[in-house]
Design brief:
about 110 residues, mainly alpha, 2 helices, rod-shaped
C-alpha cells in the first residue's frame, strides 16, 4: 500500500469519524428532548390523576403519548449512540494504525 493510498484512507476515516461524532451529538440532543417529554408526560398524568388539572381524556392521551413516545425515542437513540460510539472508537483505532504505517521523518529546525 503506497503512501498516497494511506493518505486517502486516512482522509476517508477522518470524514467517517466526523460523521459519527455528529451522529452521537444529534442523539445526545434527541435523548435530552425525550427525557423532557417523559417528564412532562409523567407530571401531566400525575396532575390529572390527583385532580390538580381537571380530567380531560385528550389531556390523558397526550400525557400517555408523551411518556410512551419519549421512552421509545430514548431507547432507540441510546442504542444508536452506543453503536456510533463503538464505530467511532474502531475508526479512530484504525486511523491511528494507518498513521503509524506512514514513514514519518523528523525535520530539524535550522540554526539561528
Amino acid at each position: 500500500m503506497g503512501a498516497g493510498d494511506l493518505h486517502e484512507d486516512i482522509s476517508r476515516l477522518e470524514l467517517r469519524i466526523e460523521q459519527l461524532a455528529n451522529t452521537i451529538e444529534r442523539c445526545r440532543k434527541i435523548i435530552l428532548a425525550s427525557k423532557i417529554a417523559i417528564a412532562i408526560g409523567g407530571m401531566l398524568m400525575v396532575a390529572l390523576v390527583l385532580g390538580v388539572v381537571r380530567f380531560n381524556p385528550v389531556a390523558m392521551i397526550a400525557a400517555m403519548t408523551l411518556a410512551i413516545g419519549g421512552i421509545v425515542v430514548f431507547g432507540s437513540n441510546t442504542s444508536t449512540s452506543k453503536q456510533a460510539a463503538a464505530d467511532l472508537s474502531a475508526a479512530e483505532a484504525l486511523r491511528s494504525e494507518l498513521i503509524g504505517r506512514i514513514d514519518l521523518r523528523v525535520v530539524g529546525l535550522p540554526d539561528l
